[in-house]
Amino acid sequence: MEAAFEHIPVLRREVLKYLTFPSDRPARLIDGTVGGGGHSALLLRRYPQLELLGIDRDENALAKAAETLAFAGNRVTLVRGDYSSLAGRAAEHGWEEVDGILLDIGVSSPQLDHAGRGFSWRAEGPLDMRMDQRSELTASRFLNRASEQELERVLREYGEVDKSRRVAAAIVKKRETHPFATTADLVGLCDEVLGKSKPGKLPAPTLVFQALRIAVNDELGELERALPAAEKLLKKGGRIVVISFHSLEDRIVKNYFRDAAASCICPPGLPVCVCGKQSTLKVLTNKVVTAREDELAENRRSAPARLRAAEKLV
Known about the structure:
Layout: H1 12-18, E1 27-31, H2 38-46, E2 50-56, H3 59-68, E3 76-80, H4 86-92, E4 98-104, H5 109-113, H6 139-145, H7 148-159, H8 164-175, H9 183-194, H10 204-217, H11 219-233, E5 234-244, H12 247-261, E6 281-283, H13 293-298, E7 306-312
Parallel strand pairs: 1-2, 1-4, 2-3, 4-5
Antiparallel strand pairs: 5-7, 6-7
Helix pairs in contact: 7-8, 7-10, 8-9, 11-12
Organism: Victivallis vadensis
GO molecular function, one term: rRNA (cytosine-N4-)-methyltransferase activity
Keywords: Cytoplasm, Methyltransferase, rRNA processing, S-adenosyl-L-methionine, Transferase
């Protein structure tokens, strides 16, 4: 039986601060990672003329969102898909431009807490980790088929795992006689190679599981494809808000916003600008926005959340 999809949306005040809409005309919002509908519900209640296109690749999340957002009636359209496909989804519904885009990316609490999804090392379950369970690539398939070089790269780049080469080599050796099938299989290997976690230190499997999840779901590729598509869809004055949960994602967002906001990319030393570049975004968050103390006390999982926002200029 599927666990109930219950998720506390993070940085709620900040989302309402940076995603604003006109009150004198209909407006359109794309929530590319609608999840259980928490953020969208806040915005739909505040702006009665707001229409929503909610996208998610997790069918359980969409079912919960349908319940949460039922109060808004035909103002809400929900579709299943990757958030990098938001341009195509918008076109399918005749949305040529939008007033706002929200991306709350990463794994959700319901996904982490449901042992059958295999996202968490804390509960035994199948090594799945697929956000979209229609995908053929599971975590176990990746572990059992990827080359040692690919495993080492994923562990090093996506998880910044200490001793990534040793972990990759150990995975390849172990799978020859005992293919990886459950979260316990991978936790056991982490304990063997990295040692038991010490009090006050990040548990050894945490970063290994993070790296594997990012690879299985192509999370960084999704984000890199989604940002230019989102910018193109925004009308002048429209806003985009992105909430990320680890440094790799936040760096991608920060760099994209910075580059789009730049008005000149000429090499230093030229007397006049010859590149002709025009700023297309105005960055609204001079520095990354994080959870306040009261939210941290209410929801410890808000601690790694990082929000950045920008406004379309042209």
